[in-house]
Amino acid sequence: MSVLNETVTLDSAEKTHLARIVFFVFLLTFMLARILVFLIMSRRIPDLYLHLGGSHIHHLNYGIFLLAGLGGFFLFGKPEGRSLQAAAVVYGLGMALTFDEFGMWIRLGGSYWQRASVDAVGVLAALFGLIAYAPSIEKFRPRHWWSAVILAAVVVVFSVLFVESFRYTHRIIGPRLYEIEFGSPP
After folding, report:
1. Could you say which residues of the chain have pLDDT below 50?
2. What is the pLDDT of residues 8-35, one digit of tens each?
3. Measured between alpha carbons, how far is 25 from 90 in angstroms, rounded to an integer?
4. CA nearest 87: which of 98, 74, 96, 100?
5. Cα–Cα nearest to 89, from 150, 133, 24, 136
């Protein structure tokens, strides 16, 4: 019971450091997962997928298990120091593996290349980036607010252009990606 009553308080620098670890590991894991899946599906590397009873175990399951284990670690343990940094790494890994296949949460049996997955990862990366690098709201000054408004406008314009580029890309390389996926190992 004493573990539940004890709390660990982190200073701002420690929180920022942990947020940056999560952000970096999240982005790196997402990129590596996408690269590995493409290489496996295009048969450029051997099939590394885990198959149980004829079923492909998607990597979102690994992420769910990592996040569940991490929840237990925080609930029943008292992580400090290096164990908190390790937890940040595991959290970034788990979130990337899980959200890389976010589209499959919505449409089971859908293609790996669903747009919803990339959108979800983009939103999470933006949030993790803000948590890791933006000043806290208490420290905002007028120039920060103006920067935030300008950044929001740029993000809106970028998002519109990004969506259009995805539509164009989907028309050009989408059929090839689906061909690779359906010809890949089960």
Report:
1. 1-3, 5
2. 678 888 989 999 999 999 999 999 998 9
3. 8
4. 74
5. 24
